[in-house]
Amino acid sequence: MRKDAERNRAAILATAARLIAEHGPDGFSMEDVAAAAGVGKGTVFRRFGDRDGLVRAVVDETSQSWRAESAALLEADDVPADERVITFVATLFDHVIAALPLVTALERVSSRSIACDSNSDLTHHRLAALIAQVRPGADAEFLAHALLAQLRADVLRHLVHQCGLGVPRVRAGVISLARGVLAGDLEHAGGSATMPRL
Amino acid sequence: MRKDAERNRAAILATAARLIAEHGPDGFSMEDVAAAAGVGKGTVFRRFGDRDGLVRAVVDETSQSWRAESAALLEADDVPADERVITFVATLFDHVIAALPLVTALERVSSRSIACDSNSDLTHHRLAALIAQVRPGADAEFLAHALLAQLRADVLRHLVHQCGLGVPRVRAGVISLARGVLAGDLEHAGGSATMPRL
DNA sequence: ACTCAAACGGACTGACGGTCCGTTTCTTGT
DNA sequence: ACAAGAAACGGACCGTCAGTCCGTTTGAGT
């Protein structure tokens, strides 16, 4: 890859990430990105194909560290399976909350949850495998999806901002729900609004 | 309201509903609707304001019978609360599945689930009240949202079409999840792929 | 029939995603 | 160092579409 191409690529990704964070998932046009990055519009399209490609690239870039971390987590055989699931859910929750506009943009273009897009279907499979391990006999594949559905950016935004439940309360609820799914009961579900340390 | 205005209103709503059903949530333009309904573009905008308004009007129209039915259901004091919740969830599931493109269009426009938009926040409150009744001490408001989140059109479309779980399996899963939420346990969750009669 | 407010309709505008192609810039072989 | 060609650049250009505007038509009350 040519040096100027690489430089522009980085500039475009950084600019797009900033614009999405600042102006929301719809608050930018391709021309905005090009201009703010100091390149021509054609360059953006040449590199990323189309709007969706750009958003996906930004997400890939931004979430790389988190994805590696969570993949490692799901495979850490020295930790009990149920604990791995809970930690994974909590981590993903934090990640989505921290990057709400970006993840929302991703969902708009691919209509899939962040942990379930084509290049990380693996995540879903691993999660389902863990759930199957903890709760043999259950429809683990479905349950994994059910957990991930709670972590969709638009769902979380709705709960936190439109419904006015705060982040801590939603976080506690999601984690309790995950505990319930794993334990086969929901004794802890929503029992308190305090925020578990994890 | 003038006679021609009423006639056009009905024609536009019917046409829009048909186009959405046939070509998906994005497969139509305002001009398409106007032309197919045999009216001018200006008429569509005059009546419905903008694209979002049109979609909302179509949903309102289409879902009226269902909304009345489900409202009555949630208030039927002669039926046990838990059973009312399950029936509500099952009914809503069927409704969303039957009108996937339309409900998807609504969610794109208002980014809210069908049972939780401004004119039927009531639904959510009633559902939460029922859950609170069955499971005092739990965060019923959150749990109601959690159940409704499972019934979002994009979530269901993802599960059914992209992930290849069939409608019966997802239906069973959703209902089991609801049972689990109500019972404080998930013994039934995903236990089988058969479709409960309700 | 007369009037006029309400409704109509389609030309027009502005914004935006995406394409095209003449120009510039990096790289590589000599 | 230089030439040559491939790769990348950039912005003018195009088609589409939501939304506006205004001259024309139509229905309802008198």
Question: What features would you describe in this structure?
Answer:
2 copies of one chain form a homodimer. By secondary structure, chain A is mainly α. Chain A folds into 2 domains: 60 residues, Arc Repressor Mutant, subunit A (Orthogonal Bundle); 121 residues. Chain A has 10 helices and no strands. In chain A, helix 4 packs parallel to helix 7, helix 5 packs antiparallel against helix 7 and helix 6 crosses helix 9. The longest helix of chain A is centred in the N-terminal third of the chain and has 25 residues. The first copy, chain A, starts with a helix and ends in a 15-residue tail after the last helix. The C terminus of chain A is likely disordered. Chains A and B meet through helix 8, helix 9 and helix 10 of A and helix 8, helix 9 and helix 10 of B. Chain A binds a DNA duplex (30 and 30 nucleotides) through helix 1, helix 2 and helix 3.
| Distance linking N and C termini of chain A | 42 Å
* Total tally of structural domains of chain A: 2
Gyration radius over CA of chain A: 19 Å
Q: What average pLDDT do the residues of chain A reach?
A: 88
Task: Describe how the helices and strands are arranged.
The structure is a homodimer of 198-residue chains.
Chain A: H1 3-23, H2 30-37, H3 41-48, H4 51-75, H5 81-98, H6 100-110, H7 121-134, H8 140-150, H9 153-162, H10 167-183
Helix pairs in contact in A: 1-2, 1-4, 1-6, 2-3, 3-4, 4-5, 4-6, 4-7, 5-7, 5-10, 6-9, 7-8
Chain A binds a DNA duplex (30 and 30 nucleotides) through helix 1, helix 2 and helix 3.
